[in-house]
Design a protein that fits this description.
Elements lengths: L14 H8 L8 H6 L8 H13 L3 H9 L7 H4 L5 H9 L7 H18 L12 H11 L4 H27 L2 E2 L2 E4 L11 E3 L1
Antiparallel strand pairs: 1-2, 2-3
Helix pairs in contact: 3-9
C-alpha cells in the first residue's frame, strides 16, 4: 500500500512557508507567490492562481519581461546541459524535446536564436499537448507577430503553464485551503472554477 501524500494547509502558512511551497510555480520567480500571499485565505485553487496572475499583471513591464526571460529555450542548451528546473524538464520531455535527433536539435537552436534576436526574450509556450511538429509550426507562426503581441502571448502561455503546475501540485500533495480539501476543477488544462470538498 502506498503512503498517503503529505497534506499542507496553504491558508495557514506564514509568508516564508507559502513562498517555499509555491515559489517554483512561476519559473525562477518566487516573487509571484510572495506578492500573492497577502490574499490568503483563498477559497479555491482557481482563486490562488488568479491572485498570482494579478500579481504579474500589476507589476512593471520590465518585471514582466524578466519573468518571460526566466524561461528556458525549447530544446535549448539548458535542456542538454541539465540546467532546467524539474518542472521544465517534465514539460519538455512530454513533447519529445529531450530526445531530438541532431538535425532536429539544430533546427530548434536556429529557431530559438531567430526568436530571441527578433523579440529579445525566449519563445514560451505551454508544451503539454504539443509534439515537436506542432511546436515547430508555432515557432514559425509566432515569429511573424509584432513584439507587443508576442509579449502578451508569452504571458498567456505562462499563465497556462502555471495553472498546469498548480493543478499537478494539488493532485500530488492534496493541499488544504483552510480546513477543506481543495480540488482544482481543472478542465483540459484551462483555469477551472475550483471546488471545495469538506
Amino acid at each position: 500500500m502506498s503512503a498517503t501524500p503529505p497534506v499542507f494547509t496553504l491558508n495557514r502558512m506564514d509568508r516564508d512557508r507559502f513562498v517555499a511551497a509555491l515559489g517554483g510555480i512561476f519559473e525562477h520567480s518566487a516573487w509571484v507567490a510572495e506578492a500573492a500571499w497577502p490574499g490568503v485565505p483563498f477559497a479555491s485553487v482557481a482563486a490562488l492562481h488568479a491572485a498570482m496572475v494579478a500579481a504579474v499583471r500589476s507589476t512593471s513591464p520590465q518585471r514582466r519581461l524578466d519573468l518571460i526571460r526566466a524561461h528556458p529555450d525549447l530544446a535549448g542548451r539548458a535542456a542538454r546541459g541539465g540546467k532546467m528546473t524539474a518542472n521544465s524538464v517534465t514539460e519538455q520531455a512530454s513533447a519529445g524535446l529531450l530526445s531530438l535527433s541532431g538535425d532536429e536539435y539544430d533546427r530548434f537552436l536556429r529557431l530559438n536564436a531567430d526568436y530571441r534576436e527578433r523579440f529579445g526574450f525566449p519563445f514560451v509556450i505551454a508544451v503539454l499537448g504539443h509534439d515537436k511538429t506542432s511546436l515547430h509550426a508555432a515557432f514559425v507562426t509566432r515569429l511573424a507577430n509584432p513584439r507587443g503581441v508576442e509579449i502578451e502571448t508569452a504571458l498567456g502561455e505562462i499563465f497556462t503553464i502555471t495553472w498546469s503546475r498548480l493543478d499537478a501540485l494539488f493532485r500530488q500533495r492534496r493541499p488544504m485551503i483552510g480546513g477543506a480539501q481543495c480540488t482544482s476543477g481543472n478542465t483540459n488544462g484551462k483555469l477551472g472554477s475550483g471546488s471545495m470538498r469538506q
